[in-house]
């Protein structure tokens, strides 16, 4: 697959009104392949919007390179880049009807009327708004307005669509519907998407690849499952999903794996892994859903503790357990908890597979 976007060593600093300097992008490298759905994810202020604005041409970089479809974007103004942005606020022209809003980019470029009308018709069909051409934005629902914004951005078939929190103004249900539609549309059109969101669930379900940013630096770039199951460092582990993260030291190495100890005396097991030596320090990641209340089979490790809190979530139970040595353990366990009839203060065992635990070396943690 050819690369649509290449960002090399992008650096961008802002001078703040208070007289300080903010490093919004601190040596960012990003490649987006043709047809890829890439999500930029990170806390507020991590540089997501700055990176999008640099790609679209609204924010010149201090240093670094940007190529779109192999062409350097040095000195190329936003309107001449093969890129459109869809914003959370839709940014529609309120006085124009839907057809004029969508056809605007083609009108500006002087596309012949017949071709223009055909393209507008096609793209409205695509986003499910055929027959609403004459409505003005105020006569549409939030979800419909977002579809117009999408249609407008897609009408001249850009190589790349940038989406800056496009769904965050929608309520939960509509948001989920739009997530599915957007993903379907992206697949159908084969256009590369760079999508910005705060919402980790949205990122995990929609993306081919997630790029996690913090403090203007890329922390990790990978497929959703890789980011979730094998985070590169403690920041990513803590930012995505619920996590139990314990600072531990390697105490012993056996044929099955490693025995790890917390300073409280609590012991954990980690599956076989290359490069581990006795005395190494790091953090162990165990996701709440990796625990079981009954031993699922051979080779599982156990953690004893007492139920401190429990909540029924409709399908699963969410438990807060205090381990024998005083560690807090979050566990999400399925239905079997019904038969066990949980009570606060009850002594229980939590089982986990040592090979599903993830070790973060101190240097990367
Ligand atoms: N024009 C500007 N002048 C000064 N500082 C800026 C400017 N634009 C952005 N910043 C700063 O640069 C950093 C990165 O901002 P950016 O908008 O890229 O973050 P973000 O990840 O998109 O955040 P959010 O999720 O809140 O939108 C922040 O610290 C922000 O305050």
Describe the structure.
α2 packs across α3, α2 (98-108) packs parallel to α4 and α3 crosses α4. A six-stranded mixed β-sheet has the order 6-7-8-3-9-10, with helices on both faces. The protein has a five-stranded antiparallel β-sheet with strand order 13-12-11-14-19. The chain is elongated, with a radius of gyration of 25 Å. The chain contains nine helices and 19 strands. The longest helix is centred in the middle third of the chain and has 18 residues, at 172-189. It has helices at residues 48-56, 98-108, 113-126, 142-154, 172-189, 200-206, 224-229, 234-239, 336-340; strands at residues 3-15, 21-33, 37-41, 63-68, 71-72, 83-87, 160-164, 192-197, 209-214, 217-222, 244-253, 257-261, 267-271, 281-286, 301-312, 317-323, 328-333, 347-352, 358-361. The protein has 365 residues and is an alpha+beta fold. It has two domains: 3-239, 3-Layer(aba) Sandwich (Rossmann fold), CATH 3.40.50; 244-361, RNA polymerase II/Efflux pump adaptor protein, barrel-sandwich hybrid domain (OB fold (Dihydrolipoamide Acetyltransferase, E2P)), CATH 2.40.50.100. Bound molecules: adenosine-5'-triphosphate. Adenosine-5'-triphosphate binds next to β2 and α1. It catalyses: ATP + H2O + polyamine-[polyamine-binding protein]Side 1 = ADP + phosphate + polyamineSide 2 + [polyamine-binding protein]Side 1. This is Spermidine/putrescine import ATP-binding protein PotA. Part of the ABC transporter complex PotABCD involved in spermidine/putrescine import. Responsible for energy coupling to the transport system. Its EC number is 7.6.2.11. It holds the Pfam family ABC_tran.
